[in-house]
Amino acid sequence: MSEFKTFFKLFLQYFIYLILIFFIIYMLTHSDFVLGLIIGTIASAIGTFVWYHNLSKAINSDALYISSGMGIRFLIAIMACLFWVRYPDTFNIVGIALGLMLTYVMIIIHGVNSLKK
């Protein structure tokens, strides 16, 4: 199975579901918090893909230097927060921060599910 298909099965489909749910909630409420959640969740999905790509490269590599893509993930988080800096009345920083943390929640859930198997 290709790297992207595996990533899609493990993480991306859940991000897509969450983004769709948050978008529907936003259409009903027009809340700046939910809009921040959408931005944070999209950035979180991109950051998770970077993390997963670097993890799979590290597993398949014999090199001494292993990159986790931390710098790129920091840049993605900074870019998400710049939406709030530019438009503070439109986006909620707490929503963006919670959306960015979804990656870590999904990694923990995936790890616990892997231990159960």
Automatic annotation (TrEMBL):
Membrane topology designation: Multi-pass membrane protein
Locations listed in the record: Cell membrane
Annotated TM spans: 7-27, 33-52, 64-85, 91-112
Protein name (record): ATP synthase subunit I
GO CC annotation, single: plasma membrane
Keyword Zinc annotated: no
InterPro entries, alphabetized: ATP_synth_I
Keyword Membrane: yes
Origin species: Macrococcoides goetzii
Record key words, sorted: Cell membrane, Membrane, Transmembrane, Transmembrane helix
Main location: membrane
